[in-house]
């Protein structure tokens, strides 16, 4: 037996308000047909004034804690991935900690945009296996609606808000997280970025993206990192039961699966309902597939994501 990080529970939370493609077409020059054909997106959730990254993260965390059957007080580590924190500081992780009533634990945010959840998972996994913590909340939570340019049809139709969370427990087992692989290449940070920040403009800024170029890199990087993580875990693609990818675009999911020779039936797709929720998309999709019974205990699951930076990464696990 080996000390590994096991997923004890999953949870997610979405804002109350939903926005269809048809509603967006009333705001910008677009159509439902264009959005569906180019992206697969049909719907997204948008945070209201009383909802925020930390409030959605807290709701998702509570569901993951309940699903795991543990007490909030058992959590000794919170790693929260977000590019849209409630405030520049303190970290949203500490806001979740306070909302959960946890007196003392390690809590911090991780920022790797859409790859944030994979980075957070990898960091939490390392801290559990090194004995720095025993039970972690790993959360991806975003409110990208706050940083969208609602006049820019090329980006505002692509994103949504939401949160997903896992409880990870350190256990002596042969299951759990088998391998993680992370990458970054900062030479591409002008292809997907926000044109503001506390140390430059002093404003929050708006998301800007050269979509076609991001798309081109995404398929290459994602298929490479999936192969890399499977090799590190000693697995073949034939042994994979489920791929839970970052939900950016249905065409990226199809192209990546094809490149790896994976059946599209094994790919969990939620982009149609949630759009791109950045760091929240992988745990949101994982929660969806666990709760609807597709992902079962013992299944081999691979997670992957790619985003601004560029950053990209993958994890292989036995659920
Ligand atoms: O999560 C981080 C990772 N992000 C991604 O993975 C995003 C990757 N990129 C993509 O998913 C795709 O590139 C997009 C969905 C963003 C765009 O699809 P595309 O097939 O690459 O389209 P395009 O940007 O090349 O634009 C094609 C045309 C353009 O018109 P012209 O120049 O051909 O006349 C755009 O102006 O589509 C136009 N267009 C739109 N038309 C209607 C762009 N946005 C829209 C829109 N509605 N919303």
Automatic annotation (TrEMBL):
Which keywords does this chain's UniProt record carry? Answer: Acyltransferase, Cytoplasm, Fatty acid biosynthesis, Fatty acid metabolism, Lipid biosynthesis, Lipid metabolism, Multifunctional enzyme, Transferase
- Keyword Lipid metabolism found: yes
NCBIfam families linked to this entry: fabH, PRK09352.1
Q: What HAMAP family does the record point to?
A: FabH
For this record, an example GO cellular component is:
cytoplasm
Give the similarity note: Belongs to the thiolase-like superfamily. FabH family.
Q: Which InterPro entries match?
A: ACP_syn_III_C, ACP_syn_III_N, FabH, Thiolase-like
Which species expresses this protein natively? uncultured Sphingomonas sp
Q: What is known of its domains?
A: The last Arg residue of the ACP-binding site is essential for the weak association between ACP/AcpP and FabH.
> For this UniProt entry, which residues form the secretion signal?
none
The identity of this protein, by name, is: Beta-ketoacyl-[acyl-carrier-protein] synthase III
In residue numbers, the region (ACP-binding) covers: 247-251
